[in-house]
Amino acid sequence: MFLGTYTPRIDDKGRLFLPAKFRDQLTEGLVVTRGQERCLTVWPRPAFEQVALQAQAAPVTDRAVRDYTRLLFAGASDDQPDKQGRLSIPPMLREYASLTRDVVVIGVVNRLEIWDSGRWQSYSDTHEESFSDLGQEVFPRD
């Protein structure tokens, strides 16, 4: 399970050190995709394979399915951390998420998200107010 918030930096070659506590969970490989709200999502390969299976099962006749799968898979990059635990982020994905140097990596249960630090701060500030109310909407009580 991925938990926590970390603040690595992207180097001049577009690489970032993955938080050490996550590296073992990504040794089988990973897939980086566009995420919602202009962040990047890092999926362990087995988790992304489950997403791919769901996409294959979805009706291709549904326009929303076509649109979503096109954008998700066209922007996907499969990789493996190097021996130092670094992840190379392709230029197209760095541009999509406006990633330059200072980033925030957050654990989101079955995946990681990589955010531009300013964008994460803005998102977090905006949604902090409604956090307690969201819990009742997202996880309704029986």
From TrEMBL:
Principal localization reads cytoplasm
State if Repeat is listed as a keyword. yes
Signal sequence range: none
- What keyword terms does UniProt attach to this protein? Cytoplasm, DNA-binding, Repeat, Transcription, Transcription regulation
InterPro entries under this entry?
MraZ (IPR003444), MraZ_C (IPR035644), MraZ_dom (IPR020603), MraZ_N (IPR035642), MraZ_sf (IPR038619), SpoVT-AbrB_dom (IPR007159), SpoVT-AbrB_sf (IPR037914)
Report the subcellular localization: Cytoplasm, Nucleoid
Domain spans labelled SpoVT-AbrB: 5-47, 76-119
Q: Which Pfam families match?
A: MraZ
Q: How does the record describe its quaternary structure?
A: Forms oligomers.
Family as reported in the entry's similarity comment: Belongs to the MraZ family.
Q: Which HAMAP family match?
A: MraZ
Name it: Transcriptional regulator MraZ
